[in-house]
Every structure is written in C-alpha cells, then in structure tokens.
Design goal:
Elements lengths: L4 H8 L3 H9 L7 E3 L2 E3 L2 H15 L4 H8 L5 H14 L4 E2 L1 H8 L3 H9 L6 E2 L5 E4 H15 L4 H31 L12 H35 L2 H13 L8
Antiparallel strand pairs: 1-2, 3-5, 4-5
C-alpha cells in the first residue's frame, strides 16, 4: 500500500520536516516516485513508528542509527518495535507533573535535567516525559538526601557515574546489534527472535550490573572499616550485607 507524504505523517504522527530529516541522515529509506509525487510504503511507516517509539524510550538518534544502520529488515524492525512498546506500557508525566508528584520544585528537576542526569523519555516534539519507574528511582534519590548527603556532591558523583555508564551502554548496544540484530559471525539473524531476545537480555544485563555494583560497594566499604579498626560498625555492616538482597529481575 502506498502513502503520499501527507498521509504518512498523519499515520506516523511525525512532522513533515522530521521525515525529510530522517531521509537526509539515512535513517529512513528514500521513497519511490509517481510523477512528481513521492510514494511511501509500509516499510517507511514501520520505520517511522519504530524510531518514534525508540526516541520515546530515551534512545538518542545516534543509538537509533547504530541499531538500524544497514537494517532494511522490516520483520526485525517490527519485532523490536513490539518489544519496546510493551516495555513502554505505563503512565508518563511531563517535567511539571513529575516534580509535583515527587513533591519537589520544578526548578530543581530542571537543574538535574540540565546536568544530564534525568534520563527522561524524549518525545518526537522534543519534550520529555517520565515514567513511574523514573519516579520510583527519584524517590529513592530523595531518601538519600534525607540521610544528610549533600545534593551538590551527589550530583558530582552522579555525573561521573553517568559518563562511565554511557560508554558501557554504547558498547553493550554494539554487541546486541552485531550478535543479535545482525546475526554475527556469518550467522543469519532470525528477525522473529529479536523481541524475545531483547526482553530476556535487558533484565539479565541490568541484574549483572546492579549485582556487581553492590558487591564492589559493600566489599570496599568493609575493607575501609577493617583498615580503620572500627570493629563494631564492621560487624553491623557485615550483618546487613549478608541479609541484603537485590530486588532485580533476572528472567
């Protein structure tokens, strides 16, 4: 089925300029032509919907390009879109509503966003929205402030962590793209396996990272207590560490 540009943008819910920009940067295949009219197909609509959903989940255009480059596999696109949309099925809030639900000034949330630490979901119009999961994490951060941690020093530490995480994440995306999306090592990728692989790998990787971070944090904290000879706090810390379990989903 063919679509004129006006029909395509209405179905995909993206501006005309966005379609043209995606074509310019090779995220969207060029259309065919009937006379002077550009004619778009289902592959164009599927690709636009996929890009829109990935952007809404917080993927940058750089990452989207990495996942989709040389990827004229519409079945694979559709499978990944389905997996991403299933993960996205929860309420979301703009910055003002998110700040209100958190009980913090909107200016504070704005400053965290400017520091690059609020990883909200980017929308096609350039706005951002926060999910319930984002708010749960933010409430946890507010609890840290309640224990007396200074906000400025927490932000400095968070910036360092964010920079390191982004490098690791880019490497992880490279691996997923090469060995799952595109098959890797001469194997033909099964487009129908992309969605289940995405859904299974994501919590596993999250669990591995969270477990490693907690284990290293606890062991280094205990090492400091031993070095300082603070035996009573050490015993308490050992007991708490032995009883603490991570609330992550492995499968």
């Amino acid at each position: 089925m063919g679509y004129l540009l006006a029909e395509l943008v209405e179905l995909a819910r993206v501006p005309v300029d966005t379609v043209r920009y995606y074509q310019t940067i090779k995220l969207l295949p060029s259309p065919s032509h009937e006379g002077r009219n550009a004619v778009y197909e289902e592959v164009h609509l599927d690709r636009l919907r996929l890009i829109r959903s990935m952007a809404a989940r917080g993927f940058s255009l750089k990452v989207i390009r990495m996942l989709l480059e040389k990827g004229e596999r519409t079945d694979s696109d559709r499978a990944l879109l389905t997996a991403i949309e299933e993960e996205a099925a929860e309420p979301s809030y703009d910055s003002e509503a998110a700040a209100r639900r958190l009980g913090i000034p909107n200016a504070l949330l704005a400053s965290v966003e400017r520091a690059g630490l609020a990883e909200a979901q980017e929308q096609p119009d350039g706005s951002t929205r926060y999910t319930e999961a984002d708010l749960r994490v933010a409430r946890g951060a507010l609890k840290l402030l309640g224990y007396g941690f200074p906000l400025t020093r927490l932000l400095v530490l968070a910036v360092k962590h964010d920079r390191a995480v982004r490098k690791t994440v880019d490497g992880a995306i490279d691996l997923f793209d090469q060995y799952v999306r595109k098959g890797g090592r001469g194997r033909a990728a099964d487009p129908h396996a992309v969605a289940p692989a995405f859904k299974e790998i994501l919590p596993i990787v999250t669990g591995l990272v969270a477990h490693h971070f907690q284990r290293v944090l606890v062991n280094r904290a205990l090492k400091r207590l031993r070095k300082k000879g603070e035996m009573e706090p050490l015993q308490v810390a050992l007991k708490v560490a032995a009883e603490t379990r991570l609330g992550v989903r492995w499968q």
